[in-house]
Structure formats: C-alpha cells, structure tokens
C-alpha cells in the first residue's frame, strides 16, 4: 500500500497523519494492551470491490453479519482514506445501523476531523441551537480540515454529522489542535508553552512497532532525517494518538458501562491497532472492533486479524482536488498516490457480497 507520500505531506503540513497503514508487524500492537491476534490462517484471494472480509478466517461476509458483531463492542473504528467518497458513504450506513442496534444506550460518534477546543459548536449544533453553516464557521472546518476542498469534504462527512443531530447523538471532537501538533513537529515538546504542555495527555513513546510504522512512512526521507527531526515528528504523531484515544476513553468513562462510540478516523490511526484502539482500550478497560476501509485492487492486502477485524473494499472514488498555492517558505508536498482522474465519474456504492 502506497502511504509514504501521504504521511510525509501531512506531517509537513502539521495536519492529520491518517493514511492507510503500510505492512506493519501483525503482533507488535499487543504490547500496547490489546489481546493477542488469533492463529494465522491461509491467505484468501485478494478482495474485490463490494466485498467485506472477516479477518478471523478470510471469509466474505454480508454487511448485516458484520454490523451485528461490531455492535457487540464498546468502540467501533472505521478506518478510512480521507479522499474516498465511497468510504464515507459506507461509514454513514454503518453508523445508522449501529445506532439501531445500540438503541436505548449512551452513544456518540467520535470524529478526527474536529479538534477538541471547538467542541462547544458541535454540542450546540446537535442540540439544535445553531444551524449547519454556523457550526462549520465556529468549528473552523475550512481552516482545520476542509482546506481548499472544504465544500467537497463536507459533502462526504456532512451526512454523518446530520444523522447525529437527527438522532440526538453527541459528536465528539477527537483531535488535538493543529497549533499544538504543528509546533511539536517543528520544535519538539520544548516548543510548547507551559500551559499547552500541561494540557497534553500522558504520551507513550515506547511502542517500537508504531515508531517503525511512522519511520517507514517517511521512506527514503526517514533514512536521511536527523534523529531529532524524526523524534519531533514522531512525538507529534503520538500526541494525535493519545489525544484521540483519551477522547474516546473519557467519553466512555463519563457515560457508564453500556456506552458505545463509533469512531471515524484515518486508517493510519487504526490499522495494527497501535495508534488509537489499543491505547483507548488500555485507558478505558473496554474493548473495540475495527473495520478498515480499503481500495481494490490491492496486490498485497492485509487480511490478518492483527491488522483489523474486518476490511471493506471499494472501487477508487477519489474526490476531485483543487490545485493549492504553496505557502511562502513551506516545504514541497509530494502528490498523493492512487489519485483518480479529476473528472472521472464516481462509481455507485457497492453492495457487499453475501456470505
């Protein structure tokens, strides 16, 4: 899976580092507190668009069978590729199905796309106190997530947030403020004010597999990068993971043993579980299940249970991109791989295969 360019670009931008995971160790995540993976099984054929794979045995399963099992977990992670429209349509559908299965219990949707200091506008929107346009303005959607494609991005994420409002479900702003992660990526923790540093959750920088994943994402750049420079980038990455996992764990703790959270986040924070899931499990004492949203064809897919519990496969549905003007003094950002032709038609949402 081609991820190095995506991670490098997002780290330079000090924004979200959330591509689909590369080939990482299938067992190292267990050291972060998650249960060990099941015994390895024979590798099934590469998935096709429209298929859902159960990673326990490689079988193709129906959407409802997957949703039934996911609903048994306290936390469900749907690890996306941010620019894939079909991934977000699937997330909206899964969110609706989980809400039906979790009826009568405390439920929230946690979203990487919103940053913690801007929680109040989300609460006001879900409560019906402000409209959608006001919420987007007050959460600084364009600046903090949408960028030049903010309208296109909101068309993908908006249905989930509207569904939360319709069903009176809290939307949790999971992420750290990009001013904090950006400062750390450039200067390290010592670049933060005393106030910002005190507000950070405890940072576990000791997971060797997670560290190797981040270094691998830099590709050739990682080999020539000064150790101090890499340490700054890695610490910023861990701040994302610890902030988002703490956001999940804190909400569960505040709402009792029957509480559930559906988490919408980039696949790089989910795959191999050492980003957010294992950290949140350790903090909350609850359990999770994860589905990775992927693009087919893939010559070397990850279908092991160490990586995720399910994967759902789609044709490429990359959203069109507007050319960006580089900021003065900013390093060049490599183009994202696997991008579709801007004027290519969007494929229809695939129907998952029956078992």
Write the layout of secondary structure elements.
Elements: H1 4-12, E1 52-54, E2 59-60, H2 63-70, E3 75-80, H3 85-101, E4 107-115, H4 119-126, H5 132-138, H6 141-146, H7 150-166, E5 171-175, H8 178-187, H9 194-199, H10 208-217, H11 220-224, H12 227-255, E6 260-266, H13 277-284, E7 288-295, E8 310-314
Parallel strand pairs: 3-6, 3-7, 4-5, 4-6, 7-8
Antiparallel strand pairs: 1-2, 1-8
Helix pairs in contact: 2-3, 3-7, 4-5, 8-12, 12-13
Notable features of this structure?
Rossmann fold; disordered C terminus; eight-stranded mixed β-sheet; 13% strand; alpha/beta; 355 residues; 39% helix
How would you characterize the overall build of this protein?
The chain has 13 helices and 8 strands. The chain has a domain at 45-176 and 240-314: 3-Layer(aba) Sandwich (Rossmann fold), CATH 3.40.50.11550. Residues 1-34 and 326-355 have low confidence and may be disordered. The longest helix has 29 residues, at 227-255. A hairpin with a 4-residue loop joins strand 1 (52-54) and strand 2. 44% of the residues are buried. It has an 8-stranded mixed β-sheet, sandwiched between helices. It is globular, with a radius of gyration of 19 Å. Helices cover 39% and strands 13% of the residues. With 355 residues, the chain is an alpha/beta fold.
């Amino acid at each position: 899976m081609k991820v190095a360019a995506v991670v490098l670009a997002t780290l330079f931008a000090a924004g979200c580092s959330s591509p689909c995971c590369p080939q990482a160790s299938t067992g190292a995540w267990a050291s972060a507190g998650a249960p060990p993976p099941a015994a390895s099984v024979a590798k099934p054929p590469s998935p096709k668009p429209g298929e859902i794979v159960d990673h326990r045995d490689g079988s193709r399963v129906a959407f409802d069978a997957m949703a039934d099992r996911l609903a048994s977990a306290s936390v469900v992670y749907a690890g996306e590729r941010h620019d894939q429209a079909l991934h977000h349509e699937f997330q909206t559908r899964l969110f609706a199905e989980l809400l039906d299965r979790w009826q009568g219990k405390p439920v929230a949707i946690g979203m990487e796309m919103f940053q913690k200091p801007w929680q109040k506008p989300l609460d006001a929107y879900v409560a019906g106190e402000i409209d959608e346009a006001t919420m987007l303005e007050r959460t600084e959607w364009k600046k903090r997530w949408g960028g030049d494609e903010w309208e296109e991005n909101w068309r993908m994420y908006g249905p989930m947030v509207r569904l939360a409002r319709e069903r009176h479900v809290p939307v949790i702003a999971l992420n750290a403020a990009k001013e904090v992660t950006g400062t750390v990526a450039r200067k390290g923790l010592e670049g933060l004010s005393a106030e910002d540093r005190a507000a950070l959750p405890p940072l576990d920088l000791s997971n060797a597999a997670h560290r190797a994943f981040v270094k691998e994402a830099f590709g050739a750049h990682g080999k020539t990068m000064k150790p101090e420079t890499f340490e700054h980038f890695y610490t910023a990455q861990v701040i994302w993971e610890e902030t988002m996992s703490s956001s999940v764990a804190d909400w569960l703790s505040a709402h009792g043993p029957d509480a559930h959270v559906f988490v919408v986040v980039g696949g790089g924070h989910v795959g191999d579980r050492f980003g957010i899931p294992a950290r949140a499990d350790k903090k909350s004492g609850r359990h999770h299940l994860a589905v990775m949203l992927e693009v087919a064809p893939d010559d070397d897919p990850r279908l092991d249970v160490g990586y995720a519990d399910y994967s759902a496969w789609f044709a490429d549905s990359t959203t069109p991109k507007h050319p960006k003007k580089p900021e003065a003094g900013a390093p060049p950002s490599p183009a994202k791989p696997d991008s579709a032709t801007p004027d290519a038609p969007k494929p229809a949402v695939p129907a998952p295969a029956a078992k």
